[in-house]
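Encode chain A's predicted structure.
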Amino acid sequence: MNRRLFLATAALPLTAKSSLKFREMPGRVAVTLDGRVVTNFHFDEKWDKPFLFPLTTPSGLVISRGWPVEPKPGDTNDHEWHRGIFYGHGIVNGQDFWREQGRQKTSRLILQGKPRRSKGGFGGRFAMQPPNGAALGHIDQDFTLDIAGQAFRLGATIRIHADGGTDLKFGDTDDGGFAIRLSDHFRQERGAVLRNSEGLEKTEKIWGKNARWVHYAANVDGKQAGAVMFDHPSNVRYPTGWHARGYSLNSANPFATRSFTKDKTKDGSYVLKAGDTLALRYTVLLHDGAMTPEQIEKAAPR
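Encoded structure for chain A:
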């Protein structure tokens, strides 16, 4: 394990034989380490889109909000669709694949067939299903997970296929992207530090700004921890804009130029032509201890 990327902190409760295990279960793929839950890839039909929950660090610290999946006392209960790590966009051909407003109104991402499993990874194909009519297209979501020093490193590839017989237009809206919702410890008002790759801090300065990565860090039950999300150099409109909110939501969103800048002359919408595929790649570090910007840079995907 590469420990050079991280500051020295308390020894990890890992042994030389520690390894992640992946197990398919009803409605989810469970990921465990030495018998304890690391995360689950949820895709049960009771959910409107797939997501990863809970989010933990190698020491076992839970850094995701519990509500609405596993509510904890004191959890905020805004935005029910903010569950762990998830992907969606608020305007696709006029349909909302971000907010969830009941089955009569909500567009859903529905698993097709069985989830995929591979060594060190998991994923699945999901139909982009509006409330009425045929699916607009399909989205493949594939993830890898490994241990990198004092962090779990999650690799995500989102492949959007315009295979429904029509172009897919992603409208300009800040409500969308590859997103993470952390516990309330990571709220700015509670002392969390929100920083981007350009050296800017606080949601007032980093929201909507283009950056290669965004880092949320906080004290969680007396221990330092955090989450870094990286955009990938191969992605469209790299480096992306960020829907980095002070209430512990962070989302990499390349389709929100007008929404982010408030400049009505700009248009961040994007058209994926019928038959084409758009691939988006992201990396997330869920880490124990503190990380400096220099250490984050060393961990950035190339």
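The two ends are 19 Å apart (CA to CA).
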